[in-house]
Amino acid sequence: MRFRHPDGSTVHLAYCTNVHPAETLDGVLAQLRDHCEPVRRRLGRDRIGIGLWLARAAAHTLTTDPASLRALRTELDRRGLEVVTLNGFPYEGFGADEVKYRVYQPDWTRPERLAHTTDLARLLAALLPEDVGEGSVSTLPLAWRTPFDARAAATARSALTTLAARLDALEELTGRSIRIGLEPEPGCTVETVADAVTALTDVPRHRIGVCLDTCHLATSFEDPRTALDALTTAGITIPKAQLSAALHAEHPHLPEVRAALGAFAEPRFLHQTRTRTAAGLRGTDDLPEALATPEAGHAPGPGTGSGPGLPDATPWRAHFHVPLHAPPAPPLGSTLPVLQETLALLVGGPHPLTRHLEVETYTWQALPPDRRPRTRARLAEGIAAELTLARDLLTDLGLKELP
Questions:
Q1: pTM of the prediction?
Q2: Which of 154, 295, 325, 387 is most buried, with most CB under 10 Å away?
Q3: What angle is formed at CA 219 by the lines to CA 210 and CA 222, rounded to 5 degrees?
Q4: From the centroid of its chain, how far is CA 209?
């Protein structure tokens, strides 16, 4: 979906296909047929954007077989789908029964990550619509926080510098500009925007910036205006933003609230949980750890991974991407207001701070059983409802939806 900003530029809205598990090119083609096109039809649009997730196996096929790449481009066009952004965070196995910490491998200290991201950039340059000259790829925020030392940071920085040079060469060859966004996430080496500013020191910023995920921003209790001001001051761009909402519990000490939270503690994804106390931010790596009863005399320490248990005198937020249009039932809520505030700052000013927006709710099948869509049609209905909400937020900010 395309929107005209009051300054005349085009802002793209897509939804991320990592909600549909697929490791191979055949699986990706099936996604387009079984999920993406039905979402488009529900929206009554001739064309919608998708933030394509290409697992390593699918990317390898497309990179080594030009006929396969041409076939994918033809299939996108035939089904009324366009791609201006790729989700390059998960490398493979995102549809596995248990993902958890595996999603952070390989990280930016390993050559496989550089090779895969280079391939994604080259593929995106070939998949961009004819009238679009710029694409974006989101990627993991360097690595999980442990183990990660000064040598690892130098290795990751070198890999990003190499990638930037490759992207410069790609633009010279194709005329297409591809930019990369590190996606700050709780528990990672780059958890916050402040961490991103530090990590991107001495990295070519015309190519490497930040992918701002509003669920992650909210989970870490970051103030949107402070975060965006810090990026602007540091001269760091925002190649894309992911529109998502976290799980919010205002009164986590109440038994009924803890019981409701327990329904979201599931075995597939990691749900980092945070609370803001007088002593600073406290957190655990997963929701079950937060809900654990603290040991006698134990006081959780600063930072993350300090369980068991989490102080419950102040609100909790958990890294669980809940549907934008359907917040959890009371006594829980979502951080949709953080998304709205961030979006207003991103595109509500005289010029957009990013032109690529992506709805990324990949947790539909990880929701409590009574909230999961049971059919493809129900899933398509939910995704279309999220895109409709995002569209309405954009038009309320003065953007005009384009055909």
A1: 0.96
A2: 387
A3: 60
A4: 14
